[in-house]
Structure prediction request, 280 residues.
Amino acid sequence: MEGGGGIAAEEEERREQAAKKRPRRRNRKDFAPFGNYRHYYGYRVSEKLDEDPRLKVLKEEWFEGKDCLDIGCNNGLVTIHVAKKFCCRSILGIDIDSNRIEDANWILRKTVRMQSAGKSHSKTLQSGMSKDGETRKSTKNQSLSEKSDLFEIVSFRRENFVLARADAHESYDTILCLSVTKWIHLNWGDEGLITLFSKVWQLLRQGGIFILEPQPWRSYEKNRLVSETTAANYDEIMYPPEDFQDILLDKIGFRTVEDLTSGLSGTNAGFNRPVLAFRK
Prediction:
């Protein structure tokens, strides 16, 4: 299946080439027209926290022994943490930026080396000795490292999800799309957004879960001028983020939605966003 309908692939190439040539302005973060910031998780997650707050609201049953996809994975930290915490059967992280995919593979290699050295494993084992309930959790983490290293579970791929051809043999139990919709919306307009939602639906197995964290409209306003394309698309957008839930339920066909937002805590200022779980 072709993604993006009438969106031309050459337009993507033109935009990416223009982004590479664009000079850095002011003292802003690295120029990232697709939200592909190099140190995104450095300012997204407080240094006081051991893990991304969003992981606390995710349910183990959505991931354990499941095949999962993380759209817009950036440097792969969330992808890797999900695999470790919830014992996925497999999880693929995709991102439009090849540099972020290189970062993700580097972090994966580093994580595997630490796991092999027993640093994180011994820490988990010690904490798991305190209570029977926690011992069960420790055993699960232990089974992950015994079964295989993370290389057999986690993988990364450079891909523009909106424009890429879907593999007819690909399907997933759970798909993550965290703080990505704004960048797809600004770069490919309403058509790109609907393509995203439609492809997620097609890739999900029956009963599968789509976990969505949409950015609010005020965030669009802040980033609308990162390129000529985003500025033009911003003026043409007809589907604001508050309509996404109705679109996914009424137009795309998801059966139910669960709002996980109330369980979030410890998020840095500027990142208080809803997290929604849709079931196919």
Observations:
- The first strand starts at residue 67 and ends at 71.
